[in-house]
Design a protein that fits this description.
This protein is an alpha/beta fold and 373 residues long. The protein is built from 15 helices and eight strands.
Length: 373
């Protein structure tokens, strides 16, 4: 299915029913909180025994969906026996309703329909978030290339162009014609660049336990933004999800629906093994001659192996020797983690980013793609 058709279908579904949107958000948050099933008695017991821990574990969306009450009201009344009985009844009723709707299976696990709904809401939320930033606009099309050959000039754009691409001679002539004593921003011209061939980018995302919750949700959405734009440009996109091992992967493809589905359903768990992610990326990159780029996102140092840092740098070196560039995006890294991330990017001849604002991590990922696309 083409992206334009996907987009129309998804918006038709998700805008049809506010209750459906709430259900989709409930499933999305459940996946990102590493929750795959709901047992009424267990959920009720956790809520009554230790409300604060339950709130941290499940989050407000899940609590509101299953109990029918806002979190502040639950916290205020959770010790009252009559309220507990009402809460228990609501939980049992709402879980049964989710099963009747096919969102949960008879075993109380999230169904395929549930995963599809979560995919739709993640796609819709990311599109609504990124579009106002201008990162899906026409001005970011593949007509503009950072690393092609210079062949023409156009007006300089702070969002698109590097300062090294400014055409000084043409800019100076324009300033003189305008009677300016010095070159102003409006006088600047940048070199236009020829297109390069098809690009293959693999998005390698750390799904270790520390990424659980909002962190992994925003990184998934950044991957969705990357997949959307790259596929729209007819570039190939692959996915590698790693923790203590490679949890899942998608070989480079232009099938956006497949990427969206896989991006939605994985969960965070256990340790970090960056080596495995690089090795898997090397394995699934196409053998043909094309631009090959790996983007790694992680919030921690690798923890697997006798000397995980050394093994990681050796893997990065191997990838580069095979024509693969590597960029590294670090989330809340300590000093040791920052140094390792920088070394990986240096060896991979890519870029190193520190994601200070997770809400804008999609912007970082798209900027990295535009730099090689």
């Amino acid at each position: 299915m083409a992206i334009s058709q996907d987009k129309a279908l998804m918006h038709t579904i998700i805008e049809a029913d506010q209750k459906l949107i709430e259900t989709a958000k409930f499933i999305k948050d459940s996946i990102n909180q590493n929750i795959s099933s709901f047992t009424p008695s267990k959920f009720f017991e956790q809520l009554v025994t230790d409300y604060k821990t339950a709130k941290n574990l499940y989050g407000e969306t899940i609590l509101r969906k299953l109990t029918g009450f806002e979190c502040a009201y639950i916290e205020k009344n959770i010790k009252i026996p009559e309220f507990q009985r009402q809460i228990k009844e609501n939980i049992e009723k709402n879980i049964e309703k989710l099963k009747d709707e096919g969102i949960l299976g008879e075993d109380n696990f999230i169904s395929e329909k549930g995963y599809e709904l979560a995919s739709v809401i993640m796609y819709r939320e990311e599109l609504d978030s990124i579009t106002p930033k201008g990162l899906f606009g026409e001005h970011f099309s593949k007509e503009v290339q950072y690393y092609g050959d210079k062949y023409d000039v156009r007006n300089f754009s702070k969002n698109l162009d590097r300062y090294k691409d400014i055409n000084i001679k043409t800019s100076a002539k324009k300033a003189i014609r305008r009677g300016h004593k010095r070159i102003l921003v409006d006088d600047l011209y940048a070199h236009e660049r020829k297109k390069k061939g098809q690009v293959c980018v693999i998005y390698a995302l750390d799904a270790s336990g520390s990424m659980k919750g909002k962190k992994i949700e925003l990184c998934k959405k950044a991957g969705i933004a990357l997949a959307f734009k790259a596929v729209e440009n007819n570039d190939l996109v692959g996915l590698v999800v790693f923790g203590h091992d490679v949890k899942s992967f998608v070989e480079p493809t232009t099938d956006f629906s497949r990427l969206l589905s896989e991006m939605t359903r994985f969960r965070a768990a256990r340790d970090t093994d960056i080596v495995k992610s690089i090795e898997k990326a090397i394995e699934i990159f196409p053998e043909r001659n094309m631009t090959k780029h790996l983007i790694i996102i992680s919030d921690a140092l690798p923890t697997k192996g006798d000397d995980p840092e050394k093994l990681t740098l050796e893997a990065a070196s191997m990838a580069r020797s095979l024509g693969i560039t590597i960029s590294f995006v670090g989330i809340n890294l300590d000093e040791k983690g920052r140094k390792l991330g920088q070394k990986i990017a240096e060896i991979g001849e890519g870029r190193f980013y520190i994601a200070k604002d997770l809400e804008n991590i999609d912007k970082l990922i798209l900027e990295d793609y535009y730099a090689i696309a």
